[in-house]
Design a protein that fits this description.
The complex is a heterodimer of chains A (about 375) and B (about 300).
Chain A lengths: L1 H15 L1 H22 L4 H13 L10 H27 L6 H18 L6 H27 L3 H21 L8 E4 L19 H18 L1 H11 L1 H6 L4 H25 L5 E3 L7 H11 L4 H23 L5 H15 L1 H22 L1
Antiparallel strand pairs in A: 1-2
Chain B lengths: L6 H24 L6 H21 L5 H27 L4 H24 L20 H19 L1 H11 L1 H6 L4 H27 L11 H11 L4 H20 L4 H4 L4 H17 L20
Helix pairs in contact in B: 1-5, 1-6, 1-8, 1-9, 1-10, 2-3, 2-4, 2-8, 2-9, 3-4, 3-8, 5-6, 6-8, 9-10, 9-12, 10-12
The chains are: A mainly alpha (about 375), B mainly alpha (about 300).
């Protein structure tokens, strides 16, 4: 009897723990992905070896250590973490920001504008990052104002702004020095972020700014008056309004912050080493869209976002390894999509919890 | 430069947006928001393109177009069941579930292409849909039929009335014996099927293969057309013509010497900008079905 009670409390604890549910959901996503790989007659071991190699850099086949993979994984993680934050903060206010992609593009565009038009001087990169933060922030702020003042659905508005950002970035890119159809003149060395720790990879000092943003996210949300009013708005807009909180301010501020995070991501990707020239993008990089999944897996918390961002970085880096091993790299997108679908099913757990509670109460009542 | 000569082009681009938007209208009138329309269109388009290529290569002739559209429709329907189960049975957050399906669709379509054709796109087929003697694509007639049937079903049948009741006040509908779960499932399935059909229409008229950029946000534009058209068949049709027309302008502008010299990006922005401005212009007043996007819990009110 006692053992049964302990057993129950474990499952109850599991159901109550957001962290456990997130881990469960990720595992479930991988499980279905593995089944799919089996279904099309490929070897799932190749998928997992690609993933572990991206995590630790150790190749199982010949025991080679390739730290470049770890560096690339971390480099890919940076924009994911930032875009996760860009989704997470508005989510805490009750907004669904699908616009991180557009804010990311605007940040990248601003960064390459400063890099190409300002006469190079040491430390130029810092001003590129600042420009990106401001541009992303403004692009996000537009949505904030539209939502707060005009009550425009932020879902459709942000998606439209993503495409407007894409084409605006192209139009603007054509006017930059040395512009062709695909890229601009080479970015000056002074605008590049310095390589860090693993010089063979694109991992760079941008990581300090990423960590700073994670800290800012935590601090603003949990330790400031603004953060309190943001969370209050998210829990119950009307109650917040009644207790004198300016929901307009919460909504707008959350979008300004979100844009800053995503804009910085754009600059870090551009200046991080993978692109010798300025970019004239033909499509979306999808970091912004994936930020939605990152933040959902990370439960919109600072640390959760950090860890989920690294997970997505691992998946991104493992793509090229998978493709070389005859596993279609799109399996990673499928796994990510499945994870989001499974997270949305979380509300189904509430129904399970309710049933368990009813059963427990009934048993207690009968035993008396 | 006569606008009438451009009518077939305009209708070719408007039709899929209109078909998808009518589907979106059904699901939202039943009380479920389905932002997965974008992904479902992609799945339908990929399925239609693959089917048409394989059947054409096997020498099936012109019938393969019909089969391809049906396969696209069925694919959209099948994947919409995920959204229906999530949002109706499990009371999931409908935006998250829809986003998940959109991400899933991006992966699944290209994954399938990798398996079938060993490339990140489907193989090009030889001949897509052909125009009739008025220069019209069959998709235009399909779209017109969809609108008329939608209007009839929505306003002239008991099913339509029950569906609308579930979107306005599910508890009241439930109390008079309407099966809310069934109605909402129907709404989502109609939107899934029509989104799949719309995807097939895009790929078989406007291009020769499915790539990751084939849909390019048109599902989201269809969603915007639903709210801009105030959830009525006529309104949605006019909104789809406006948004689709803005998109068609980018194609037509190539034929106008004065405009052809401008970068095409100016015209590419147009549909998205028009949609955004339309959203802002109609904000403030709320015409949405009362219970749109809110899960219904039996006995909890």
């Amino acid at each position: 009897m006692k053992a049964k009670d302990e057993n129950r409390t474990f499952i109850d604890k599991l159901l109550d723990s957001d962290v456990a549910i997130s881990i469960l959901v990720v595992m479930l996503g991988f499980l279905v992905g593995t089944l799919l790989i089996l279904l099309v007659g490929r070897n799932p071991a190749d998928m997992f070896s690609s993933i572990t190699e991206s995590m630790f850099g150790v190749a199982k086949r010949n025991g080679d250590w390739n730290f470049r993979y770890v560096g690339e994984t971390l480099a890919y993680s940076m924009p994911y973490i930032l875009c996760g934050l860009a989704m997470g903060l508005p989510a805490r206010v009750g907004l669904f920001n699908i616009g991180a992609e557009g804010q990311y593009i605007m940040g990248m565009t601003a960064a390459q504008t400063v890099a190409l038009l300002v006469t190079p001087f040491p430390g130029l990169w810092f001003f590129c990052l600042i420009a990106a933060i401001i541009a992303g922030s403004l692009w996000g702020g537009i949505v904030g104002i539209l939502k707060a003042k005009f009550n425009v659905s932020e879902v459709v508005a942000t998606i439209m702004l993503n495409y407007i950002a894409l084409y605006t970035s192209r139009l603007w890119g054509f006017t930059l020095p040395g512009a062709t159809t695909y890229n601009t003149a080479p970015l000056p060395l002074e605008s590049k972020l310095t390589k860090f720790l693993i010089p063979t990879s694109n991992f760079n000092t941008g990581i300090f700014f990423v960590l700073l943003m994670v800290a800012i996210y935590y601090f603003v949300l949990n330790k400031t008056k603004l953060g309190y009013s943001m969370r209050a708005t998210g829990y119950n807009k009307y109650a917040a309004k009644c207790s004198g909180i300016s929901t307009v301010r919460s909504v707008t501020a959350s979008m300004l912050f979100a844009g800053a995070f995503a804009g910085l991501a754009g600059a870090i990707v551009l200046l991080g080493g993978a692109f010798p020239k300025g970019r004239i993008i033909t499509g979306m990089d999808n970091y912004g869209f994936m930020g939605i999944a990152v933040s959902l897996v990370g439960n919109n918390t600072a640390i959760g976002n950090l860890l989920a961002g690294v997970l997505f970085g691992i998946l991104k880096q493992s793509q090229s390894l998978m493709q070389s091993r005859n596993i279609p790299k799109e399996i990673t997108y499928i796994i990510q999509g499945l994870i989001v679908v499974f997270i949305s099913l979380r509300s189904g757990l509430e129904i399970v919890k309710q049933k368990r509670l009813t059963k427990k109460l009934r048993e207690e009542a009968l035993s008396k | 430069m006569n606008i009438l000569t451009q009518l077939p082009t305009i209708l070719m681009i408007v039709s899929p947006i209109l078909i998808a938007a009518i589907g979106g209208m059904f699901t939202e009138r039943s009380g479920v928001v389905n932002i997965a329309i974008e992904g479902l269109m992609g799945l339908g388009a990929c399925a239609a393109a693959s089917t048409h290529y394989l059947m054409e290569a096997a020498g099936a002739g012109r019938y393969s177009l019909v089969v391809a559209l049906l396969v696209g429709t069925a694919t959209g329907w099948a994947f919409s069941l995920i959204h229906a189960a999530a949002s109706v049975d499990l009371k999931a957050d409908q935006t998250i579930s829809g986003t998940g399906i959109n991400l899933l669709a991006d992966g699944t379509t290209i994954f399938v292409a990798q398996i079938l054709f060993k490339a990140d796109r489907t193989k090009e087929y030889q001949v897509g849909m052909l125009t009739d003697r008025f220069g019209m694509y069959p998709t235009a007639y399909i779209a017109i039929a969809v609108v008329i049937i939608a209007w009839f079903v929505m306003y002239k049948t008991p099913f339509g009335m029950h569906l609308r009741a579930c979107g306005e006040h599910p508890a009241a509908a439930d109390s008079v014996g309407i099966n809310v779960r069934l109605m909402r499932y129907s709404g989502v399935m109609i939107s899934g099927s029509l989104a799949g059909l719309a995807g097939g229409c895009i790929v078989l008229t406007q291009t020769i293969q499915y790539t990751s950029g084939t849909i390019g946000g048109r599902g989201y534009i269809a969603l915007a057309a639903v709210s801009f058209g105030r959830w009525s068949p006529l309104g949605v049709t006019l909104a789809a013509i406006l948004f689709g027309g803005a998109q068609a302008f980018a194609v037509i502008s190539n034929n106008i010497p004065a405009l052809a010299s401008l970068p095409s990006e100016y015209f590419n922005i147009l549909p998205y900008a028009v949609t955004l401005i339309a959203l802002i212009a109609t904000s403030g007043k709320d015409y949405a079905p009362q219970a749109n996007g809110i899960p219904y819990e039996k006995g909890a009110s």
